[in-house]
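OP here, attaching both records as promised.
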Amino acid sequence: MYYDDLPIWGFIGKVDKEGKTDPSEYKYFLYKHINFDILYNKDRVIEINVHTDPHALADVTEDRTWMWSSCIQ
């Protein structure tokens, strides 16, 4: 991902391989909260840092069907 022509590096998830040798047993997670720190010098972006909350995870190991609703309350 890029912001103001600067690359942004960071992890968006993780794989739990602990104690498992078969890749089909791995568990896959995405981070639910990703924070961006953007540093400026006057009107120029000079640095971008990405931080995640390692405890806010969504398990995406199994196939799931998501339904989009246009009605948001």
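Record two, same layout:
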Amino acid sequence: MKQGSDFQLIYTQPIETSLLQTQVLEPVAFFCELFESAKYQIDIAQFYLNCQPQSQFGQVIDALVRASQRGVTIRILLAKQGLALSTRHTLAQLAGLRSVQIQYIDYQSISGGIMHAKYVIVDGQKATLGSHNFDWRAMCHIHELSLLICHKRIVAQLQTIFDFDWHAQHLQAQNIPILALNYHRISPGNFSRATLLASPNAYNPPTIGDSQLALVQLLDRAQTHIRIMVMKYLPLAQPSLTHRVFYPTIDDALRRAALRGVKVELLVSNWYRGESELQYVKSLAILSNITIKIITIPQPSQSFIAYARVLHSKAMSIDAKLAWIGTSNWEGGYLDFSRNVELVVPFPSLAEQIETIHQQLWHSDYAAPIDLNHRYLSVDPGADSCSI
């Protein structure tokens, strides 16, 4: 691990693509080294945990096992809704270790969302957050971007979020109500320094700003250009399985930016439910100064892999001066009701690295401008016949 930097990118470029790594950390080697360095505690918050036999991610699980054998306390907090996505044999392997505790939190009953954050804290000194699920596919078959954090204030703030959620899970298990911490939006500040954000705002510990409010403020401050990578951008929320409502918060901010003359370059994955969703994305692409491209990453040569080969990164650069790395998709339900974490870093060097990765994908063969006249079909990422 390179010394002397508070923030370093962790990047997965899917294998068998022309995408390249430049001055970033490779995820498998990084997480193995991170866990090998642990002295007394590892805290892991993830949506789910999925490791297949013989996958590279198995090396990361092995590093966790060795940490436990050294006496390191390991707390793993997963989403109750993610249990079905997890591999039971991996959960059983880890749960069988003496120093490992695994808990499942139900954010649906707390705020109407899910536990969607993806972060790790080691010894209260180092942390990661970003798009990497603890999933074997995220290590080599999905476009992912996360951040190593060695900044003491940020790590300490992230620890308060984990500790709150860990305690909340214990309250849930006893059917004790979890009281909100905030009844008004918490301002994130002026972004003159690295700023940790989280959602849902009502359950953010003190000093943690509201992600949704911060994102709008940042978009409203952009002067020249905004470059975004996100798995899904959609101005809709789905409060129930049968009902969807308009969610204009981010959409309005992007439109205001375009009207000011700010150039917006938005990259999204091809995981959309056809025209019923993409018509909203098209309505944004109609505007001057906004260009949207859909990323389609082909399957590897050996076989079809379900729920893989996709742009899953959630990152943004503003004016090549400010970087945003997070765990939220940009649609209703993520920045308002679900547990997610984001980090804003006002360092041009980091913003430029994100721009380099964005532009490599933007100009690749995997990117196609959204076609306003094309009627897109729905994509099922679990089926071997996706088309868009």
